[in-house]
Structure formats: C-alpha cells, structure tokens
Design a protein that fits this description.
Blueprint lengths: L1 E5 L3 H13 L3 E5 L2 H10 L4 E5 L7 H10 L6 E5 L4 H9 L4 E4 L4 H15 L7 E3 L2 E4 L4 E4 L2 E3 L3 H12 L7 H8 L10 H12 L6 E3 L3 E3 L3
Parallel strand pairs: 1-2, 1-3, 3-4, 4-5
Antiparallel strand pairs: 6-7, 7-8, 8-9, 10-11
Bound molecules: calcium ion (CA).
Length: about 220
C-alpha cells in the first residue's frame, strides 16, 4: 500500500516515512502543499497523511483541490492540539480522519489501514479469498490452518490483489502500490513476486489476464 506523506517538518516527516515503511507501507514524502497538489493530480496513492500548515499551499487547500478533481483517496490530517477550527474545516473539506500531534506511529499505521480498508469497500479487518486469510494489522497470511511465510513485498502484493479481488490490476498499478519513488524496480519484479506467491500459496490463486495484468477472484 502506497502512502503520500505531506509534512514540512523534516524530523517529523522523516520519522513518519520510516515508521510507515517499518509497518509495511511504501511511503513517499513531499514537504510543501504545491508539490503535494501536483503529485496527487498525477499519481495514485492508497492514502495521504497531510499536515495543515505547509509552505506555498496549505494542506486544506491541497485537500480541496484533490476533492474538486473528484479524487477519492483517503486523507488523514495531522493537526496541532489547539486547532479545533482546522479539524472542522478539514473534515468539511473532505478529510477522512485526523491525528493530533504528537501521535503514536502505531496508531497512525492502524488508522491508515482502517481508511484503506473502508475505501476498498470492505469493513472487515481480515481479508479472505477461498481458504487464504490475510490480516493486515498482524501482517500474517494463513492458508487454511497453516501460516505462510511471505516477504514484505510478497505480502504487500497479495494485500493489493486481495483488496482488489474481482478487479484486474495491471503491473503498473501494482508497481505503484508496492514501490516508493527512488526504489529500484526491475522490469519483471511483479512477475517474479507473483510467481513466488503462486508457489507459496497455490498456482490458481492469481490468474494472469494476458496483456492486462493479474486477477484474484473473490
Ligand atoms: Ca507544518
């Protein structure tokens, strides 16, 4: 799952990016509202962590522009303790949730998982396809009663495919979910990870739709 972090405080932005990576997200980070607006207009993210006080363009304005474009990406605002008005304006402008600084990294990750889950149209915290069960918060995958050991990338790939069960996802879409900017992507990386997943789970779980991408049936 790919997250855009918009935060001008360098120490905090760095800590959020590192914390999200540790929680299994791919996290990109920009430090001003104008850049956030440009990136959100052109790239796909599963959720946005958005500071309100930002240089060049406020977080609220970047959020309004996103919603004006009919962008539905879930947005979690970061606000200061004594700024109730910011939170009200933010929620009214289309934010989905907020956290008050300072916050706990574990709580941020859990709230993002909840937002992504709901935006995927499912309220269930644990995803199930056939006898495969994936628990995003515990980071575990079960095949029947057997725990399956997956790498972080394999887990993220399976998570994306199961969240989108019933939809064909292209290699480009999957690549966007798995990798942050600047991370090296081999041209056949997705194929290789799909191959590993089929071997560790079972081959028919992930169908190849020729010329389009991959499909997990619900
Ligand atoms: Ca700020």
């Amino acid at each position: 799952m790919r997250i855009l972090v918009v935060e001008d405080d360098v120490l905090l932005g760095d800590a959020i990016q590192a914390g999200l990576k540790q929680a299994g997200f791919a996290a990109d980070w920009v430090r001003d509202g104008m850049l956030a607006d440009q990136v959100l207009a052109t790239e796909a993210f599963d959720a946005v962590v958005l500071d309100i006080g930002l240089p060049r363009l406020s977080g609220l304005e970047a959020l309004r522009r996103l919603r004006d474009r009919k962008g539905t990406t879930p947005v979690l605002l970061l606000t200061a303790r004594d700024t109730v008005d910011d939170r009200i304006q933010g929620l009214d402008a289309g934010a989905d949730d907020y956290l008050i600084k300072p916050f706990d990294m574990g709580e941020l990750a859990a709230r993002l998982r909840a937002l992504i889950r709901r935006s995927g149209g499912t309220a269930a915290p644990v995803l199930q396809v056939g006898d495969i069960t994936l628990d995003p918060s515990a980071h575990t995958v079960m095949h029947g009663d057997d725990a399956v050991n997956l790498s972080a990338t394999e887990f993220a790939l399976l998570h994306a495919l199961m969240l989108g069960a019933g939809k064909v996802l292209s290699r480009a879409q999957l690549g966007e979910k798995l990798y942050a900017w600047g991370e090296e992507i081999e041209s056949n990386a997705i194929e290789v990870h799909v191959h590993h997943l089929r071997r560790k789970l079972y081959p028919e779980l992930i169908e190849t739709i020729r010329g389009v991408g991959y499909l997990v049936r619900p």
